[in-house]
Amino acid sequence: MWSFGDAYESYVGRWSRPVAVEFLRWLGVPPGRTWLDVGCGTGALTGTVLAHAQPAAITGIDPSEGFLDLARQRVPGATFEAGTATDLGGRTADVVVSGLVLTFVPDVVQAVGEFAQAAPYVGSYLWDYTSGMRMMRLFWDAAKDVDPAAASRDEGLRFSSVSAPGPLRALWAGAGLRDVEVTGIVVPTVFRDFDDFWSPFLGGAGAAPAYAATLPPEQLGAVRDLLRSRLPEHGPIELTAKAWAVRGSR
Ligand SMILES: C[S@@+](CC[C@H](N)C(=O)[O-])C[C@H]1O[C@@H](n2cnc3c(N)ncnc32)[C@H](O)[C@@H]1O
Q: Boundaries of each Methyltransferase type domain copy (predicted)?
């Protein structure tokens, strides 16, 4: 699901970058700190930390070699290493951040425990899959209308136990973090036209594209046509994406 760095970029990497900017503003970490970016992917958040937070050093960690390769090319100035959220290999830093990752980690309690052990300040964000991440919401609603079995793959249903204010607050508090705060971050996602909206779903990288790849051509075409009928016919498609962000300190 995570091996195609370029496909991920056009699917969601391009939208995670503006969320990262707002998230860092909200975290308010002073310059000169060391950072770990867990589940760094193609380096969207890592690069944004370098551009906006003047870190002393930053290491990005991800299990996907394909993403790490692309991150190394895209974000010079950071270190990128293989690893997972549930085993940070004893690494420490002033700040641990993790963008759009926890919903994919098998044991989130263990992961946030690792984060809190590794750093005194821990922040993260996840899409609001239930409603606010419009691009994905529209896709899953259309997919379920065509293929009722898609309900079992819908990220809005699968991830609601993690990606919502209550669960995030409980996770952070459960890891012994204090002054826990959660906020919503909304960014515009503007698509040039329907093709710019639809073609990233065909790239295989991410949960919705991975599901799309399993559909026979006629069902995939029916999802596409339904989406086309629900979106503006002419001009750019102006949607928004909402993420839930959480922060806390040890
Ligand atoms: C939606 S992408 C987010 C990437 C990047 N943080 C961003 O904001 O664009 C999810 C990332 O989580 C990584 N991932 C999946 N399982 C993981 C795990 N158990 N530990 C750490 N990262 C994981 C994937 O390889 C992928 O890079």
A: 36-117
* Structural domain boundaries in the chain: 5-249
- Other CB atoms within 10 A of residue 70 CB: 21
Phi, psi of 127 (to 5 degrees): -60, 150
Q: Give the pLDDT score at 2.
A: 55
Place of tokens 């960014």: 187
- Superfamily for 5-249? Vaccinia Virus protein VP39 (3.40.50.150)
Residue nearest to atom 1 of ligand 1 (CA): 100
Q: What band does 204 get if pLDDT is binned at 50, 70 and 90?
A: confident
Report whether residue 40 contacts ligand 1, using a CB cutoff of 6 Å.
yes
To the nearest 10°, the Cα dihedral for 246, 126, 188, 201? 170
Residue type, 13: G
**Cβ 208 under 6 angstroms from ligand 1:** no
Structure tokens at 106: 């098998």
Give the global pTM: 0.93
Contacts 24+ apart (CB under 8 A), 17-22: 17/44, 17/47, 17/48, 18/187, 18/188, 19/99, 19/125, 19/185, 19/187, 19/241, 19/243, 20/44, 20/45, 20/48, 20/49, 20/99, 21/48, 21/52, 22/185, 22/187
CA of 101 to the centre of ligand 1 (A): 5
| Cα 31 from chain centroid (whole Å) | 24
Atom of ligand 1 nearest to the CA of 12: 9
Ligand 1, residue 62: give the atom nearest the CA.
22
Distance 14 CA to ligand 1 centre (A): 15
Please tell me what DSSP assigns to residue 87.
Answer: B
If you measure from the C-alpha of residue 218 to the centroid of ligand 1, how many angstroms do you get, rounded to a whole number? 31
